[in-house]
UniProtKB/TrEMBL annotation:
It catalyses: (3E,5Z)-octadienoyl-CoA = (2E,4E)-octadienoyl-CoA; (3E,5Z,8Z,11Z,14Z)-eicosapentaenoyl-CoA = (2E,4E,8Z,11Z,14Z)-eicosapentaenoyl-CoA. This is Delta(3,5)-Delta(2,4)-dienoyl-CoA isomerase, mitochondrial. The gene is 5576287. One of its GO terms (cellular component) is mitochondrion. It is found in: Peroxisome. Keywords: Acetylation, Fatty acid metabolism, Isomerase, Lipid metabolism, Peroxisome.
């Protein structure tokens, strides 16, 4: 039956004008042509981007002097960065790390919050103060959500402290790794506020326990890597930052070698299905695959599996 299926695919490929080999020369050329390093393409003040492997982009938080604390510039640039990577054909998988800083992130930059306090002090009307806050909170929410909206899978690599806004950030990622010395804290109640950019919505879904999520968010207690692993916040724990980054890049490289149509369609449907019924998720993937199953990626991948040939190289998307 499989031979008949492959034969049918080959006929379909010919009708569509595709090569019937597992990897055509055209696909190879399209896949690697004009592959541009992220370091040359992107220039951010608070982020550093590089391309450690083809189609893999490493995004490093880059405020080491402030322990990667979030200021307004970082919020803005995070949103811009992941929105641009969403559309970048040279990017198929992303590793997000704390770079060379002592911690992954110390959370919100309190010096930046003091500047906001001065700005608010110049406004007398409470309605206008509220309008300012509304715009800022929406900006910060959209910044975090840009990881989730980006079709490219995001692997967060966390070392030492991941506090406050850092938890918002990593819960919007697809995969989370951490070092043995990592620790986490939903800090917001300790500074007199409720977390408002994603943790309260995403953390319970990530760990699958309303009880534990509420305990962590209501007490602001620290929890270490072993607990984070046990509850499912992270999928792997590593002894060193170097080992963690190596494994994160290896995972990103493996993902980047797959069909970008398949990978991005998978992420899109899994994110959609988080807050939709099973039937709605099934309806969405059916509508997506009406087109995606006609892709050259599907034809090349199936024939490579059948022939046990080398992994096909997929053209840019």
């Amino acid at each position: 039956m499989m031979k008949n299926y492959v034969s049918a695919l080959q006929k379909s490929a010919k009708m569509l004008g595709h090569s019937t080999g597992p990897v055509s020369a055209l696909v190879k050329n399209q896949a690697v042509r004009s592959l541009c390093s992220a370091a040359n393409k992107y220039n951010f003040e608070t982020l550093k981007l590089s391309t450690p492997q083809p189609f893999v982009v490493h995004v490093e938080l880059n405020r080491p002097d402030r322990l990667n604390a979030f200021n307004k510039r970082m919020w803005i640039e995070l949103g811009q960065c992941f929105s641009q990577l969403h559309d970048d054909p040279d990017c198929r998988a992303i590793v997000l790390s704390g770079g060379s800083a002592k911690h992954f992130t110390a959370g919100i930059d309190l010096l930046d919050m003091m500047k906001l306090g001065q700005q608010l002090g110049e406004i007398e009307d409470i309605g206008r103060k509220a309008r300012l806050f509304e715009g800022l909170i929406k900006l910060y929410q959209d910044s975090i959500s840009s990881l989730e909206r980006c079709y490219k899978p995001v692997i967060a690599a966390i070392h030492t402290a991941c506090v406050g806004a850092g938890v918002d950030l990593i819960t919007a990622a697809d995969v989370r790794y951490c070092t043995r010395d990592a620790w986490f804290q939903v800090k917001e109640v300790d500074i007199g506020m409720a977390a408002d950019v994603g943790t309260l919505q995403r953390l319970p879904k990530v760990i699958g326990s309303q009880s534990l999520a509420r305990e962590l968010c209501l007490t602001a207690r620290k929890f270490k890597s072993d607990e984070a692993h046990a509850c499912g916040l992270v999928s792997s724990v590593f002894e060193s930052r170097e080992e963690m980054l190596k494994k994160a890049i290896e995972l990103a490289t493996q993902i980047a070698s797959k069909s970008p149509i398949a990978v991005q369609g998978t992420k899109k449907n899994m994110v959609y299905s988080l807050d939709h019924t099973n039937q709605e998720g099934l309806d969405q993937i059916r509508e997506m695959n009406m087109a995606n199953l006609q892709s050259e990626d599907f034809i090349n991948a199936v024939m490579a599996q059948q022939s046990k040939d080398e992994m096909p190289v997929f053209s840019k998307l």
